[in-house]
Amino acid sequence: MRAQIDENLKRVYSAALNEELPDRFRELLAQLKAAEGGTGKGGTS
């Protein structure tokens, strides 16, 4: 039973990775990236 659950989770995760991002989500990510770049803060050092 556990192996079947694991396989189903892997299948759903793989399908989600292959989906294209909606335009609105891309826009929000671009805004977030621009905001982080404008403040001089970022997650990287």
Automatic annotation (TrEMBL):
What InterPro entries does this protein map onto? NepR
Q: Which species expresses this protein natively?
A: Paragemmobacter kunshanensis
The protein's name: Regulator
Superkingdom field: Bacteria
Q: What is the lineage of its organism?
A: Bacteria, Pseudomonadati, Pseudomonadota, Alphaproteobacteria, Rhodobacterales
Q: Domain Anti-sigma factor NepR, which positions?
A: 2-36
